[in-house]
UniProtKB/TrEMBL annotation:
InterPro entries, per the entry: DPNP, Inositol_monoP_metal-BS, Inositol_monoP_superfamily, Inositol_monophosphatase-like
Cofactors required: Mg(2+)
Reactions accelerated catalytically: 3'-phosphoadenylyl sulfate + H2O = adenosine 5'-phosphosulfate + phosphate; adenosine 3',5'-bisphosphate + H2O = AMP + phosphate; adenosine 2',5'-bisphosphate + H2O = AMP + phosphate
Record's protein name: 3'(2'),5'-bisphosphate nucleotidase
Known role: Converts adenosine 3'-phosphate 5'-phosphosulfate (PAPS) to adenosine 5'-phosphosulfate (APS) and 3'(2')-phosphoadenosine 5'-phosphate (PAP) to AMP.
UniProt lineage: Eukaryota, Viridiplantae, Streptophyta, Embryophyta, Tracheophyta
Binding site for Mg(2+): 80, 142, 144-145, 294
């Protein structure tokens, strides 16, 4: 396909190419830090430094690549981190570590011939201070989604989406530890083989997956299971992130037989989008407010073929700034299961009250 016809088919082709490049480079930095964590004994210390380094480093690289690849765009990013803590006394060593890690990742990536100073790094981190909102274009970034999974050597994701006039129009989800082939036994998939998946979707163009290192993209789709008895569902690995007693009562109402698949981060959305499971439920504890960067990317990857709703059956609204202003609970599944799952969720919530 020529570049002209590609742009005609996908009006966000340039943004998508830049976002894929940004996420792949950030994921490379994260992989390196995660290997370091697993070789040392960070888990036994209350030391969050490696995560901090990877979080900030990932945000710096994404910010840098987007600005380099899309120089004519006005840049606005809603992201999790800012540089406040790194500007404090005593943070110099961490800042130096981040700067050298970022520069090494850029050098090894081979696309850019440049070196960042510590000031450049701080400025790039603060590129994520935007509030987003209903007008204009804003990037939405979670530089490391699934921090605890990251520390354990498990699933995490680099999640980058684009908001245009209040709607998520594009999403790229880098999952360095998720096998490229389906993890679902029913799909004939196994967890052996290549690891590292890059999911991406653009509004109106469906969802695809390729190897994090680059490969021929494959079209993906949510499963077409229509009987909840045959469905398996995803939930957060960390019990503190979701009400498990409520989820199990919902599963019981639906007659779901399979045990829940517990996974950290928006990698769940990627796995769901290619049919590794049928339902993702997230019912947070009372008072917890979801952020836009925790769901924007995952939701567009799934809605390319499936549905994502809140517990009242409404679409998620990402136009309200940094937080999701919505009913408690998020449900992602296919169009066949959504009505029955929604009904079970609402009944279980009513009973709980």
């Amino acid at each position: 396909m020529s570049q002209l016809s590609e742009v005609a088919a996908n009006p966000y082709a340039a943004e998508l190419a830049a976002a894929k490049k940004a996420v792949a480079l950030a994921a490379r930095l994260c992989q390196r830090v995660q290997q370091g964590i697993l070789q040392s004994d960070v888990q036994s210390k209350a030391d969050r430094t490696p995560v901090t380094v990877a979080d900030y480093g990932s945000q710096v690289l994404v910010s840098l690549v987007l600005k380099k690849e899309l120089p004519s765009h006005s840049f606005s990013m809603v992201a999790e981190e800012d540089s406040k803590d790194l500007r404090k006394d005593g943070a110099q060593e961490v800042l130096e570590h981040i700067t050298s890690l970022v520069n090494e990742t850029i050098a090894n990536g081979g696309s850019y011939n440049m070196s960042l100073s510590k000031e450049d790094v701080l400025a790039a981190i603060d590129g994520g201070k935007s509030e987003g909102g209903p007008s204009g274009q804003h990037w939405i970034l979670d530089p490391i989604d699934g921090t605890k999974g990251f520390i354990r050597g498990d699933q995490y994701a680099v999640a980058l989406g684009l908001l245009d006039e209040g709607k998520v129009v594009l999403g790229v989800l880098g999952c360095p530890n998720l096998p490229l082939k389906s993890t679902n036994k029913h799909n004939g998939g196994s967890s052996r083989g290549q690891v590292g998946s890059l999911f991406f979707a653009t509004i109106g163009c469906g969802a695809e997956v390729e190897a994090l290192e680059g490969s021929e993209p494959q079209k993906i789709s949510v499963c077409s299971i229509n009987n909840p008895v045959d469905a398996s569902f995803f939930e957060s690995f960390e019990a503190s992130h979701s009400k498990r007693d409520l989820t199990s009562s919902i599963a019981e109402k639906l007659g779901v037989q399979a045990p829940p698949v517990r996974m950290d981060s928006q990698a769940k959305y990627g796995a769901l989008a290619r049919g590794d499971g049928a339902i993702f439920l997230r019912i947070p504890h009372k008072g917890y407010i979801e952020t836009v960067w925790d769901h924007a990317v995952g939701s567009i990857v799934v809605t390319a073929g499936g549905m994502v709703k809140d517990a009242s059956g409404n679409d998620l609204d990402f136009s309200k700034g940094r937080y999701l202003n919505r009913d408690r609970g998020i449900i992602a599944t296919n169009k066949y299961l959504m009505p029955v799952v929604l009904k079970a969720v609402q009944e279980a919530m009513k009973e709980e009250q």
